[in-house]
Design a protein that fits this description.
globular, TIM Barrel, 4 helices, two-stranded antiparallel ribbon, 24% strand
Length: 139
């Protein structure tokens, strides 16, 4: 597997996106998601991308990466309006993914980015996220 530098991380050039694949609820579908994570790791894929906007994906990422966290770099996104709603959504991402650290946190489609970046910067300063960025047309 080839790796590239993303900030201070070495991430696989192939990552796993979770938009539809991990937006599942049945035990059988979650087991299939676990197989996907296991296959990613077996093939040296270490970058998993998800978002609060992807339905159940963050929760399924949390379930399927339990005990594997030291082998995976996580990226997620906030996508909502307002400081309070953003703080709630961001906190929920940590909770659903069952982690206290997220390598890359993005503002999805630039929605209310001026409001969310200070919140993300505070979390970065606290050591809870590694990087932040605006994700969208001009990012």
């Amino acid at each position: 597997m080839e790796y590239r530098k993303l900030g201070n991380l070495q991430v696989s050039t192939i990552g796993m996106g979770t938009l539809r694949t991990f937006d599942v609820t049945s035990d059988a579908d979650i087991a299939r998601s676990q197989e996907i994570i296991d296959s990613c790791l077996a093939n040296d894929v270490n970058f998993i991308d998800t978002a609060a906007w992807y339905g159940e994906a963050e929760k399924v990422v949390g379930i399927t990466t339990g005990g594997l966290r030291d082998q995976i770099h996580l990226a997620t996104k906030v996508r909502c309006q307002g400081k309070g709603e953003g703080e709630t959504q961001i906190a929920r991402s940590f909770e659903l993914m069952n982690t206290d650290y997220i390598e890359l946190f993005q503002v999805h489609n630039m929605i209310d980015w001026q409001t969310h970046l200070p919140t993300l910067q505070t979390l970065k300063d606290e050591g809870k996220i590694g990087m932040l960025r605006r994700h969208g047309n001009d990012a």
